[in-house]
Amino acid sequence: MEGTVNKGRKMLPGTTAVVRPVPCVDRRTQLLNELRALVGERGFQQWFVGKTDFEVADDGVKVRVASQFQQAWMLRRYGADISRCVKELFGGVPLDWSIDRALGSTADATASQAEVMSPEVSAVEPARPAAIEPAATVSYQNSPSATKTLFPSFELNDGKPTVRDGRKYLSFEEFVVGRCNELAFTAARHAAEQPGVQCNPLYLHGPCGTGKTHLAEAIYKAIRRLHPNLRLLFMTAEAFANQFTHALRTHSLPSFRQRFRNVDVLFIDDADFLNGKRGIQEEFLHTFQQLVSHGKQIVLTSDSHPRLLSQTCDELVSRFLSGLVCRVEAPDIETRRKIVQFKTASLGAAIADDVLEMVAKRFTNNVREIEGALNTLQTWFRMTGKRVTLAVAKQVLADLERDCVRVVKLADVEAAVCNLFGMNSDDLRSDSRTRSVSQPRMLAMYLARKHTQAAYKEIGEFFGGRNHSTVMAAERKIDTWLRANDELVIGSQTWRLSDLVERIEQQLLAS
Hints:
Blueprint: E1 2-4, E2 16-18, H1 27-39, H2 41-47, E3 52-57, E4 60-65, H3 68-90, E5 95-99, H4 107-117, H5 119-122, E6 138-140, H6 144-150, E7 154-157, E8 160-163, H7 182-193, E9 202-205, H8 212-226, E10 232-236, H9 237-249, H10 253-261, E11 265-269, H11 278-293, E12 297-302, H12 314-321, E13 324-327, H13 333-345, H14 353-362, H15 367-384, H16 390-403, H17 410-421, H18 425-429, H19 435-451, H20 456-462, H21 468-483, E14 487-490, E15 493-496, H22 497-510
Parallel strand pairs: 1-2, 4-5, 5-6, 9-12, 9-13, 10-11, 11-12
Antiparallel strand pairs: 3-4, 7-8, 14-15
Helix pairs in contact: 1-2, 1-3, 7-8, 9-10, 13-14, 13-15, 15-16, 17-19, 17-22, 19-21, 20-21
């Protein structure tokens, strides 16, 4: 006869004691114990016992709650605590939330009461569940419609949350490729097919309206189709800055960092917005390092080359340069012709071929100008129902061109050059022949000749009383450097002259 060892009980003669080993604390119990210690006994009894269940496996931790309302409350009140415990105990495993109606029926009522009676929570946390932004590592298994209501910033992508802001993302098929953007287009396709492999980070820069954001959106759309399990986040640098500021104000930095540092692909549009914002740059640098070190893809767009971000920390600039930096040029004439043909095909307007040729030749700065001109002609066609001829197009577009005229003065050029090089006008007009003064002065003369109606003599007089031959020599010198793609050494940095010219011209045309 066999028996078990029982403390305080005598064994019968002839019996054999079988000692059963006491089982080690399983991982689920370990997690519950950690949570109990972290949130306190009262909070644990109120929100976890009978209302929340955990399933710990090798491939992740599943959290089941009784209702959508409780899920919203738990994420806001205890989401950071749960994520912290899971990370400390099991590493960076996925954390999944789902609804289990079989769990306590009083969860919603308790949550409603806590919403009213817990001043310490309402003073720190937002009062509405719809404002919650869950960590990007969480995948939501409940219905898409419910998720859309509770978490408007995300949409389900094969069980994983991806950014959802209502925008229509453009595709590669809608992008017109030419010599001006062929390299950037190829790099974008490669980043979409193999995110995080080579083109990482991918930094797209160039003038406004040349297709940088279009390419970023096309990468986003292609990755969603080719790699549906990846977690994507697309936003502007301004939105990143605003959310970081909000996280500081509401003491919710851990949640903010989880959201950004646990995605698979991060898109930041208009990255030059961070220029000059030191505190935000530091936070973005840490996010950048975390993602790249784990093989996550980063795509950035900017109007300026990284080296021209003069108020951005060197560490961040060097990381921008560590991947692939591609310039998207203003469209050349052949590319503009393709763009005009492509855009006209979707307008449904009767426009003569010579009109399309005129639009391609006359609107040279960016794609948006071409789109604006074609939309103007389409509106005229709808208004009159008549075919758009060359004579009509010239008349209709004349007002558009007249309103877009920007008169650049010598003082504008001087101010733009001084602003970029950190100089004052007295230095630029002085007799100094040092390289740090003479090169910006020559550049100012070149741009003055290019963008103003001033004669050589007038430009020379303006920049320190010099004669016309000095201005002509400066123009030839800068033109030669540009053709040779030369660089200038300014301070401790080396700059491509074409990038400097682009930066100054952007400021001239935007002011």
